[in-house]
Amino acid sequence: MKASQFLISTLRDAPADAEVVSHKLMMRAGFIKKLGAGVYTYMPMGLRVIRKVEAIVREEMNRAGAIECTMPVVQPGDLWRETGRFDKMGEELLRFKDRHDNDFVIQPTSEEVVTDIARQDFRSYKQLPKNLYQIQTKFRDERRPRFGLMRGREFIMKDAYSFDKDADGAKASYQNMAQAYRRIFDRFGLNYRAVAADSGAIGGDLSEEFQVIAATGEDAIVYCPESDYAANIEKAEALAPTQARPAASQPMQVTPTPGKSTCADVAELLNVPLQSTVKSLVLATDVLDEAGAVKGSEVWLLLVRGDHDMNEVKVGKVPGLNQGFRFATEEEIVDHFGTRPGYLGPINTRKPVRLVVDRDVAVMADWICGANEVDAHITGVNWGRDLPEPEVVADIRNIVEGDLSPCGKGKLAIERGIEIGHVFYLGTKYSKAMNATFLDVNGKTQFFEMGCYGIGVTRLPAAAIEQNHDERGMIWPESIAPFTVVICPIGMDRSEAVKAEATKLYETLLAAGVDVILDDRGERPGVMFADWELIGVPHRVVLSDRGIQAGECEYQFRRDAEAQKLPLAGMDAWLL
Ligand code: ATP
Ligand code: MG
Ligand code: MG
Ligand code: MG
């Protein structure tokens, strides 16, 4: 690929609604373009990564004996009524009608359609086991689409469904997929953990999530460093005995007095040190329902830069984690604080401001609050819950870090993860609901034993970036990098030697099947380097007149701090 013929559109700044690093970098590097909430165009550079993810998934699924098909994105509502999910599924299921007033859904998953295929086409036990998969667009009307591709509404999933003649077969199919998933995620070169997950009504242990370890992950996972015990927090809590524990933090209810709401005052109220010139206020407001009862809380973060330069006051909602926040719109600020951002002097709130957090966020003690910048945080903030019953002021979690692991070998540790895959034994749940049967060896009708297996194809690149980036940009594992090698010729338009050498190296690598891009845009070196570091191409070769005269080029691996001079002669062989 030649850069002049490709689409490279990098931005200096990320849009204000990008909260986490993967979303910011994908926007800045021109990987995705937002069309609406949770709906993105995969731009050419981003699509290259997605296609590589798909190729690895496809190869390993095929190797594991699964067979690819493509099921419709638009599915008849009546099929979904057979399992009851048309009504039961809730608001994540996008439903609509066609011109004949028939109900349809956009697939959030495809158990109904695949079970319908099985009941028509898999008639005998001799045809089993079968595993059908697709790599297809999904739509889930997520309550809170966010973080770019991480939690989109439209996204790509690989979903596979196994059909077996009995429970033992289904469990073997499940294990086969669980193994294939390990091969797939190993090939992505990411740090991940397979954790036990809740298998819902079916019970048993046959549900595992594959979690990429990242501080920005929305899931909490529990593991034992001394054994292979690992579970998501819901599963771990479900199995652990309920225990009353001392509260992780003192419950707090702070009503700032008028005029007493400077950063220092709030820090004092919170009993935390204020650490930098970028100062912050952390506030929470009650969210009231129509009747005026408290239904939850929102945590607000105010950043005040420098010496209270009001033009730079920014307000953001902290979404459970402190890693990111979105800047509130002016309307929201006016709505919550009764004043415009420019006038957030000593804050006058219309509503009492209280330090209260809701359940999802209250599980954390020792928060870091403040600006999303290194050395600009208030550390050690402990949140309390404000719950009406005094006894629930105690921490109601069943599991805390340091508890003895169920394996008995060590103490539990907790970390955060991004769910990139999920394998699930379904039993006969769907086959019974849809009367999907086959004839067994005795000619008797039996319900299929099923399993389902998902991978978040478009979430995966986001997870990869969360785990692999630096201040300059993304750092792709070679297996899914948009390009593996970039050639940056300096002064290609001026120097015949540079042009000739760059073209020669490019063509040699191309012919050898290397995913190489030649930056022939004629940009200045600084611009070229910044672009390719942002895009995160693993290997960069720089050619210049002076280097060529000395028989050298400059090579830099994306993770290295500095470039090294290498002989130009063996470069093609060296890169292969
Ligand atoms: P989550 O807990 O993150 O909402 P899920 O458990 O609802 O995910 P599954 O039904 O298990 O998701 O779907 C299989 C995979 O699809 C998930 O493991 C995840 O990688 C991916 N996925 C699910 N929802 C989204 C989404 N909104 N955006 C991108 N990928 C998603
Ligand atoms: Mg979900
Ligand atoms: Mg989940
Ligand atoms: Mg899941």
UniProtKB/TrEMBL annotation:
Task: List where this protein forms a coiled coil.
Answer: none
Summarize the subunit comment: Homodimer.
* Record keyword Acetylation present: no
Q: Does the keyword Nucleotide-binding apply?
A: yes
Q: What is this protein called?
A: Proline--tRNA ligase
**Top-tier EC class:** ligase
- Report the sequence similarity comment from the record: Belongs to the class-II aminoacyl-tRNA synthetase family. ProS type 1 subfamily.
Q: What is its main location?
A: cytoplasm
Q: What is known of its domains?
A: Consists of three domains: the N-terminal catalytic domain, the editing domain and the C-terminal anticodon-binding domain.
UniProt EC number: 6.1.1.15
Q: Name one GO molecular function term.
A: ATP binding
Q: List the catalytic activities from the record.
A: tRNA(Pro) + L-proline + ATP = L-prolyl-tRNA(Pro) + AMP + diphosphate
Q: A GO term (biological process) for this protein?
A: prolyl-tRNA aminoacylation
Role according to the record:
Catalyzes the attachment of proline to tRNA(Pro) in a two-step reaction: proline is first activated by ATP to form Pro-AMP and then transferred to the acceptor end of tRNA(Pro). As ProRS can inadvertently accommodate and process non-cognate amino acids such as alanine and cysteine, to avoid such errors it has two additional distinct editing activities against alanine. One activity is designated as 'pretransfer' editing and involves the tRNA(Pro)-independent hydrolysis of activated Ala-AMP.
| Annotated keywords | Aminoacyl-tRNA synthetase, ATP-binding, Cytoplasm, Ligase, Nucleotide-binding, Protein biosynthesis
Species per Swiss-Prot/TrEMBL record: Brachymonas denitrificans DSM 15123
Superkingdom of source: Bacteria
Query: Where does it localize?
Result: Cytoplasm
Which GO CC annotations does the UniProt entry carry? cytosol
The segment(s) forming the Aminoacyl-transfer RNA synthetases class-II family profile domain are: 38-477
